[in-house]
Amino acid sequence: MMDLRELYQDIILDHGRHPRNFYAMERPSHLAHGHNPLCGDKITIYLKLEGDRIVDVSFEGRGCAISTASASLMTEILKGRTVAEAEALFKRFHAEVTGEEVPEVPAALAEDSERLEPLTGVKAYPARVKCATLAWHALEAAIKGGGLGTTVKTE
Amino acid sequence: MSSGAPLRSAPAAGFDPRRIRRDFPIFERNPGLVFLDTAASAQKPAAVIDGVAEFYRTDYANVHRGVYRLSAASTARYEDARERVRRFLNAAEASEIVFVRGATEALNLVAYSWGGAFLKPDDEIVLSELEHHSNIVPWQLLRDRIGFKIVVAPIDATGGLDLREFEKRLSPRTKLVSITHVANGTGHIVPVETVIRLAHAKGAKVMLDGCQAVPRMPVDVRALDVDFYVFSGHKVYGPSGIGALYAKRAILEAMPPWQGGGDMILTVTFEKTTFQAPPSRFEAGTPDISGAVGLGEALDYVEGLGREAIRDHEEALTGYCVDKLARLPGVHVVGAGQRRLGVVSFTVDGIHPHDLATILDSHKVAVRAGHHCAQPLMERLGVHATTRASFGIYNDEADVDALAAAVKAALEMFRR
């Protein structure tokens, strides 16, 4: 087992305690609920899309430090990104935490991808991978659901 | 409404968890393991592990079928296990014991068979807020089919069953009270003697979910005069995949089959099938034969330690844990006051139970984090999830000390 400090880095604890973009958006164009039945954690992702660009993203809910920090970091990096860019970032992040082959991301996304690096410590804790990916799964459901009120479960 | 003596502060004399631990190979293979998740599933003593292996080596064949010697031997072992369960619960007859996969299957069996046959749309059943999902969902499935009313008895401020409110929920329409004996989410002991007396006075039957009680205290179904009693083998140091349903003989005899197949029939034609008497009527198909044998070994092992000694041990350890955790800043034990047994649920300010469990795991302390399959209870207690430490016969105060030290380390890590 790796050192726990690598899992609970300062940035994770900070975002876990003080999540950014943590509010219910007034008029989202897209919305989805994420639910981890294992722990009962719930999250709602709010999106405002203009064309295929994410002009605003926020979340609310309850969760552990990992899932809250993951959602918080996600909302920070996705503002202004396109749907395709968000998908590429998720694909890479998902591969990193599940130990699959990690796809390259375009150079323009390299910095964003690096900001997710502190979360990739969960790959040493299989039971916690779902915590780190819950927000992203909800985001994907919000986009693919094409509107308001999709629910995605991690199991 | 506490129905018994206060928690003892000293462990039972002569009961030695250190020595008992040597009977459990898992601790030898996992040095330093602090296992505090027995409420989810207990570890297995060598008597069970070896007993199952030895049975497969010596006496195994299908049961109730072959005329050959080996099948008769296997059947004898299977039925001997049933007799051990009877003895363990002090049932009147072995035929009142039905082998099932576990408490979940037993609850589903009773809902489907007894409930399906005897519950009518205007009837009511009473559950409590302490219940595990397995004592909620089967009733909802049945209610959606036939339309009776599920009435929920609340907990009081201490987190135990509110007996006064419970009594108010009973009416002449109440046909069944199905309630836990010891709550898996908080460890609260339900005063089942009173529950049964009140329910019977209204003509209702009572089913007890004994999953957390059976491993921790003496249970006598005849003294209780309970109608149904269910438990899982894996929580009482037996194999997973086996459990038992006790029901009074007259009730079992009136119940229709729930699953059809071999072993539960007398005669089969395409026009009409006639069924076996209980318990065979409810054991369609080849049962978990070795599981039953292993369960029998487990019950004998537990009986050998003495269930009153086990109860004293678990009461003492539970009290010790509550005291120890309550002294840590920001730690809140869920529920208070009443007698609790073997389970301590708690929350820590600023640390989600899943984060806490991960940190505890890095200290080799295994606990459960989450809603403990009791979401309505968690909702009622105003917590989304808790961290739960639960005890077994192999735990001692050093395990609780390790838990407290690990919680302290987590507090330091999260407050840095």
Task: Specify the CATH architecture of chain A.
Answer: Alpha-Beta Complex
CATH superfamily of the largest domain in chain B: Type I PLP-dependent aspartate aminotransferase-like (Major domain)
Biggest beta sheet summary of chain A: 4 strands, mixed
Tell me the fraction of residues in β-strands of chain A, as a range: 15-25%
Overall SS class of chain A: alpha+beta
How many domains of chain A?
1
CATH topology of chain A: Sufe protein. Chain: A
CATH architectural category of the largest domain in chain B: 3-Layer(aba) Sandwich
Order of helices and strands of chain A: HHEEEHHHHE
N- to C-terminal distance of chain B: 43 Å
Briefly, what is this?
Chain A is an alpha+beta fold and 155 residues long.
Overview of the molecule:
The complex is a heterodimer of chains A (155) and B (416). Chain A is of the alpha+beta class and 155 residues long. Chain A has one domain (4-153): Sufe protein. Chain: A, CATH 3.90.1010.10. Chain A has six helices and four strands; from the N terminus they run ααβββααααβ. Chain A has helices at 4-7, 10-17, 65-78, 83-98, 110-115, 129-145; strands at residues 30-36, 41-50, 53-62, 148-153. A four-stranded mixed beta sheet of chain A has the order 3-2-1-4, covered by helices on one side. Chain A is globular. Chain A starts with a helix and ends with a strand. The model of chain A has no long low-confidence stretch (mean pLDDT 90). In chain B, the strands form four sheets. Chain B has a seven-stranded mixed beta sheet, with helices on both faces. Chain B starts with 16 loop residues before the first helix and ends with a helix. In chain B, helix 3 runs antiparallel to helix 11 (289-305), helix 4 crosses helix 11 and helix 5 (103-118) packs parallel to helix 6 (137-146). Chain B is built from 15 helices and 15 strands. The model of chain B is unreliable at 1-9 (pLDDT under 50). Chain B is α/β, with parallel strands linked by helices and 416 residues long. Chain B has helices spanning 17-21, 25-29, 46-58, 69-89, 103-118, 137-146, 163-169, 192-201, 221-224, 249-254, 289-305, 307-326, 353-362, 375-381, 397-414, and strands at 34-35, 97-100, 124-128, 149-153, 174-180, 205-209, 228-232, 243-247, 265-268, 273-275, 331-333, 343-348, 365-366, 368-370, 386-390. The chains are: A alpha+beta (155), B alpha/beta (416). At the A-B interface, helix 1 and helix 2 of A face helix 13 of B.
